[in-house]
Design goal:
Layout (H helix, E strand, L loop, with lengths): L3 H4 L23 E2 L5 H10 L4 H16 L17 H7 E2 L4 E7 L5 E6 L5 E8 L4 E4 L3 E2 L17 E2 L2 H15 L13 E4 L9 H12 L11 E5 L3 H10 L3 E5 L5 H7 L8 H10 L9 E7 L7 H13 L4 E7 L13 H13 L20 H7 L3 H15 L1
Parallel strand pairs: 1-2, 6-9, 9-10, 10-11, 11-12, 12-13
Antiparallel strand pairs: 3-4, 4-5, 5-6, 7-8
The structure holds iron/sulfur cluster.
Iron/sulfur cluster binds next to loops.
Length: 401
């Protein structure tokens, strides 16, 4: 018999709307060089009729200025002849995402609401800790996957972010932290998690191209060991992510039974828990020093029993996964259908997993005073008038200066 549940469309099969790749000029006719690889940069110059040898040399210089020095103005590029600056300015631009709103929490967490040239809003968050600073980067505007505990899941997918918009988040954070030129040591921004809005493996090529730029040792130079890609379980893309990007893997597990995971991470109806854990076991380069992180949001009376904890241990052991479990107290948002588990429940769950020799720290909520849960800033902003946002952005840009 067909029930309402099995008549529901299975999420995740809708291909995200493709976006124009490199070389599509902006409205002002200029080409944005941000997000281009060295080869693409060279091709952009050749397409603008620069002679081949010149294009090769200039591409190298431009690439260095963009990704190592953080330059956004051609006039700052002292090893490119002054007479060439106007030629470059007429044809090219080095963009940054537009900042609609920027907030700083009392705990130091910084959150930005960003806007693309076609007026799409997305978010990034910087979380400073004693020994590291982590930037949480978005990969899509909205999300197709509708995880029921996630605020971004209530927004429809608008489109994939381009490589420029993804790497642009890292560049903007570096601008804000004053971390140019790219330093090998002493940085505040030390880690990146692809854990913002969207499912990165549904925007695979753009995420891969952006992360390759982020990892390039001559540019932004963040080691692949300091980058984590978080997926809700797009199983067919996981092997490719391992082979072509090779960063750390995090998996939004959140439940250990089919019934509950089908509800809270509906992609589970397409790729089940066992299939997902097998893909984790096959992910290249994992070992005890480089474990897979399993994200587990603590939802009261939904996924937080001692039996759930024991089943989690059983599953991780069955697949022999070098694992770390991140327990995330649920951060409710307006209209959410769940509550956070009690502190006692979280403690009990954590001790069972710890007792089995698997690390299971409880993540401290960050930036609660600034709508820092994924998707909250975007929604809060949509309720404000344009004028109010502009006023706040002006005030906050002073705070970030
Ligand atoms: S948790 Fe991630 S994959 Fe699920 S709806 Fe939210 S943004 Fe999308």
């Amino acid at each position: 018999m067909q029930t309402a549940a099995n008549l529901m469309p299975i999420p995740g099969h809708i291909d995200p709307v493709p976006v124009p790749r490199s070389f599509v000029p902006r409205n002002d006719g200029r080409i944005d060089l941000l997000g281009l690889s060295l080869a693409d940069l060279r091709m952009a110059l050749e397409t603008s009729q620069l002679e081949e040898k010149q294009a090769k040399l200039r591409a190298k210089q431009l690439w260095h200025w963009i990704y190592n020095r953080g330059a956004t103005e051609f006039s700052a590029m002292t090893d490119i002849s002054k007479t060439m600056h106007p030629w470059l300015e007429q044809r090219f631009v080095i963009s940054r995402p537009n900042v609609v709103e920027a907030q700083v929490s009392t705990d130091g967490t910084r959150k930005w609401l960003l806007r693309s040239d076609d007026a799409q809003d997305y978010e990034m968050v910087f979380i400073p800790d004693a020994d590291r600073g982590t930037l949480c980067v978005s990969s899509q505007v909205g999300c197709t996957l509708n995880c029921t505990f996630c605020h971004t899941g209530t927004m429809r997918l608008v489109r994939n972010l381009t490589p420029a918009e993804i790497v642009g988040q890292v560049m903007l954070a570096r601008d804000s932290l004053g971390e140019w030129p790219s330093q090998p040591e002493g940085r505040m921004l030390t880690n990146i998690v692809m854990m913002g809005m969207g499912e990165p493996l549904y925007n695979f090529e753009n995420v891969r191209d952006a992360l390759k730029l982020v990892m390039d040792g001559a540019g932004l130079a963040l080691s692949r060991r300091r980058i984590t890609l978080s997926t809700s379980g797009v199983v067919p893309m996981m092997a490719r992510a391992g082979a072509e990007i090779g960063v750390n893997l995090a998996v939004s597990l959140h439940a250990v039974t089919k019934e509950v995971r089908d509800e809270i991470v509906p992609l589970n109806r397409k790729y089940g828990i066992e299939e997902l854990l097998q893909a984790c076991a096959d992910y290249p380069g994992t070992n005890n020093a480089r474990r897979i992180t399993f994200e587990y949001v603590m939802l009261k009376d939904k996924n937080d029993s001692d039996d759930d904890a024991r089943e989690l241990v059983r599953l991780l052991r069955k697949y022999e996964l070098p694992a770390k479990v991140n327990l995330i107290p649920f951060n409710p948002w307006p209209g959410a259908q769940y509550e956070c588990s009690t502190p006692e429940r979280i403690k009990s769950f954590s001790s069972i997993v710890f007792g089995a020799g698997i690390s299971a720290p409880v993540r401290t909520p960050r930036g609660r005073d600034i709508d820092a849960a994924c998707g909250q800033l975007k929604t809060a902003s949509e309720k404000k008038s344009r004028a109010q946002i502009d006023r706040e952005a002006a005030a906050e840009s002073d705070a970030f200066a």
